[in-house]
Amino acid sequence: MSQLSSRHLLGLEDTPESDITLILNTAETFSEVIERTIKKVPTLRGITIVNLFYEPSTRTRISFELAEKRLSADTVNFSTSTSSVKKGESLRDTVQNIEAMKIDMAVVRHSSPGAPYFLTNCMDANIINAGDGSHEHPTQALLDMFTMRRKYGRLKGLRVLLVGDVKHSRVIRSNLWGLQTMGADVALCGPSTLLPREVEQFGCDVYTNLDEALEGVDVVNVMRIQLERQQAGLFPSQREYTNLFGLTKHRLKRLNKNFTIMHPGPINRGVEISSEVADSENSVILEQVTNGQAVRMAVLYLLSGRKEELA
Amino acid sequence: MTAGPNIILTDKKISRALTRISHEILERNSGAESIVIIGILTRGAVLAKRIAATIKELEGVEVPVGLMDISLYRDDVHSKLEQPIVQRTDILFEIRDKNVILIDDVLYTGRTVRAALDQMVDFGRARTIQLAVLVDRGHKELPIRADYVGANIPTAMDDQVVVNVSELDGKDEVYVKKANEKNG
Amino acid sequence: MVTNKFDGAIRGGKVIDPEFGFGKDATILINDGKIAGIEIESPELKKQIEKLPKDKIVDASGKLVVPGLVDIHVHLREPGREDEETVVSGCRAAAAGGFTTICCMPNTTPRIDSQEAVKFVQDRAKDADARVFVVGAITKNIEGKELAEIGDLVKVGAVAITDDGNYVQNPEIMRRAMEYSRMFDIPVMEHAEDQFLSVGSVMNESFQSTRLGLPGTPSVAEEIAVLRDIALSRLTGARIHIQHISTKEAVEAIRTAKKEGLRVTCEATPHHLILTDEEIGKEFNTNLRVNPPLRSARDRDAVIEGLIDGTIDCIASDHAPHSAEEKDCEFDQAPPGMIGLETTLGLIKAFLIDKGLLSWADAIRKMTISPAKILDLNCGTLAVGAEADITIIDPDKQWTVKPKEFFSLSRNTPFDGYKLSAQVYKTILGGRIVFEK
Question: Is A10 domain-assigned?
């Protein structure tokens, strides 16, 4: 397969293995490009990309913007908060206005699950989901998988533990689906109030005890815990969360040899992960950021110019 | 149905052409010291390795060989339905102040070479860039000509020139597939 | 047999009047807008009928002739959102869907919590294509704080009370409402949803909400609300009617309460009988956002079972119009609700009758006499002397749902493009044809 089966990247739940493999393979090329002195290729010259950010995000936006610029695309940013939009223009009107300026691709971050899907009915541009509420964040999961594959040479058979707020984490959902598609063995761990209803139907091991969960694991991907969840009464205190779910050095003993620590950032040091662990030699947290460039370039490259859905 | 394909170059002729090109390269650049060779993927890369091997036989010098994938630099990526599989560009040496010999199998419109030149700029400033091709088939759309040519083969616009190399295809040969044979 | 005087006749159809168990070819005679008789045609009667002017005879051969359908859960958006539905447009949609009687909910703007508001709607409905009965509010402004002037509302014709859209969260207020309602012997209709458990939610809580990352409301929010109201009904002796029941446990609770002899009734909507929350993830279609939310298959199956065994007394559409603009947005930003007057009959036929789950007679009962009895409405029957509210159905006619052709001012249905069976052939209100295909 030399092209993706879809002209949008909305999520990984239905993305076939061949597409994920193609994206990861293509990302290898781009990771070589960004090591060059001149980190720029002319591939997307003449393509205009809008970054539609309806939710505050610095990291993801910068990562996409840099990826776009390194592919020589023209980029424009539209940042606003959902609450301010609520009072005014509808999402459809906003994006149709933007598309009238002849946009080829749109990178979308929005607080409503399904918003990127909605946009595919509003505009002709290729849509890339950069995070929709608690639903999906496919490029983050792809870069996580890329990072794992680079280290282990494979994804199949790896035991990957995703720790944190399973209920609200789009990174966990996308990682879970992507990794399952690629044949990894995924497990989830988090406080029972943050495990969503019927979570066992994901078909993976689910733990509420971190020490048990860490047993025999190759990769631990730790999620940021949003402190407003505590205010919503989903766990009693930050202190207790750290005691029960914080990844500290003494807990690492249970992991497999040659284990890997990941975190999609931004990190709450000393809350879900200790500084010692985050900065240890098994941590690939900064490599994830670098790889995010290559993966996003690959996604942009593979989707650009795709006009019609394959049958 | 007519008889088999119209063979233009047999394995012997290909071998002779590559040897001749190797000699010409050495002559023009006064030896092998300043030379680096870059082959354009996929078949140009095979030919690059052969030319480097010939030069080693002739001069005893190991010339650096790099591989270049020009997909990212093409100006027709978005107009084609099927997108190329991106392979790695692999140039592990400095090209600054070197005489770069760019090698491809067929020179046709010149767009591949333009893309390769474009990418070369991103790696640094070469002293010269020279182009060697096994077949020059005409129909140039850009002002690009080869410095070293294995064979000039005039073709019709919609003919297909097929280059087979033993490393990838089992045997060495070049033939022309006529447009009206496509459905055959 | 003595044939009464008549000025119109519907001939040749198969008549189903659930109250009298009629189920054969018969002629309905109409006189002065009322039913004058249902008879097997004798040669003599035939002669008499053929003396009538042509436009007074309806040929219903091959059709079903049933009492005009009754929908006790309809949102007419007048006053307040006349762009979405008016009393007149809602009645036209009702007629097109075969309904001759509808009950409208009080959550308009302003709310129907005063005599003036009740009279306003009644006035608008005077010459409309369906009979409209008004359901008043339980509490002032539907805020769940102070009782509305229920006596006043009943005096001018409110047939029941509800705060539909909101649950009367405070049990003390609900207790008073039930006690108070007994003085007028009207049912208290309840939107059963514990709103502490459902805060912020936009769909059912299940693996589907887990998949989609959308906040869900657990089915227990309905169960708790229903159980509380049953307990309060036992305490107060009030008649209660649970609206749009959607969960297995709530159906079970009502089954038990009925066995106990409590005065509890309930309704189910076509969408809770047919759809599940698995539909949402396919396209995030905002027309699937509804409250109570579409539930899991286990709940849907339990609702069907409840309908079959009589736990659920009637089918009601919960016709809830919303403008295209309001629904053309992100899933979680859309207001809940879907329209149903023009699709209910076809959906029930295609998904329940055709699948052998419900007989025509039972289906018609649950859309006529049964809802009428819940609210003591004088309709839903073809008894001699009753208003000639009659629906004639082409029972196996296939049709495709085309929202653009709806008489409702709104288009928010998830059934766009569905291929249904059974089409309304004619709707007759008080002897007057108000809709014909």
Answer: no
The rounded distance, in Å, linking the Cα atoms of A88 and A289 is: 35
Q: What range does the domain containing C361 cover? A: 95-374
A42 to B118: CB separation less than 8 angstroms, yes or no: yes
Give yes or no for a contact between A206 and A200, defined as CB atoms under 8 angstroms apart: yes
Alpha carbon C200 to its chain centroid, in Å, reads 27
Other CB atoms within 10 Å distance of the CB of residue C194: 19
Enter the DSSP assignment of A244. Answer: H
**Phi, psi for C251 (deg, rounded to 5):** -60, -45
What ipTM does this complex have?
0.93
Answer whether residue B183 shows pLDDT above 50: no
> What sign has the CA pseudo-torsion C408, C411, C414, C420?
positive
Query: pLDDT, tens digit, for every residue of C189-226?
Result: 999 999 999 999 999 999 999 999 999 999 999 999 99
Domain count across chain A: 2
pLDDT at residue B6 tops 90: no
Give the chain A residue whose CA is nearest to the CA of C286. A118
**Rounded to a whole number, what is the distance in angstroms from the first to the last CA of chain A?**
15
**Residue-level pLDDT at A308:** 58
Residues A13-33 pLDDT 10s: 999 999 999 999 999 989 988
The reply to whether A251 and A206 lie within a common domain is: yes
pLDDT in tens, A193-226: 999 999 999 999 999 999 999 999 999 999 999 8
pLDDT tens-place string over residues C37-56: 998 888 999 999 999 999 89
Size of interface A-C (CB pairs under 8 A): 64
The answer on pLDDT for B138 being more than 60 is yes
* Strand (E) or helix (H) holding A31: helix A17-33
Fold of the domain built from segment(s) B7-75+86-155: Rossmann fold (3.40.50)
The predicted model scores a pTM of 0.90
A29, B78: Cβ pair inside 8 Å? no
Token code pair at residue C43: 């040669």
Residues A173 and A260 grouped into a single domain: yes
Same domain, A94 and A164: no
Known catalytic residues of C? 318
Instruction: Single out the residue of B73, B65, B56, B59 nearest to residue B95, CA to CA.
Output: B65
d(CA A196, CA A165): 9
> Is residue A182 scored above 80 in pLDDT?
yes
Interface contact B86-A37, CB threshold 8 A: no
Handedness of CA B74, B78, B82, B86 (dihedral sign): positive
Could you tell me the two tokens for A36? 């060059």
Same domain as A296, residue A251: no
CA distance A43 to B83: 12
Residue A206 contacts C where some CB pair is shorter than 8 Å: no
Whole-number Cα distances in Å, A3 to A6, A130, B72, B85: 9, 21, 14, 8
Contact residues, chain C to chain A, C-beta under 8 Å: 205-207, 209-214, 216, 218, 283-284, 325, 328-333
Q: Degrees (nearest 5) of the Cα angle C130, C132, C137?
A: 160
Residue ranges of chain C with per-residue pLDDT less than 50: none
The 10 Å Cβ neighbour count of residue B182 is: 10
* Number of domains observed in the structure of chain C: 1
What CATH code is carried by the domain that includes residue C184?
3.20.20.140
User: A102 and A131 share a domain?
Assistant: yes
Cβ distance C146 to C388 under 8 Å? no
Residues of chain A neighbouring C325 (CB-CB closer than 8 A): 90
**Type of residue numbered A240:** E
> Is the pLDDT reported for residue A72 higher than 50?
yes
What's residue C3's pLDDT? 64
The whole-angstrom distance between residue C383's C-alpha and the CA centroid of its chain comes to 21
Which residue matches tokens 């060989």?
B65
Q: Residue A64 phi/psi, 5° resolution?
A: -65, -45
Question: Cβ of C207 and A198 within 8 Å?
Answer: yes
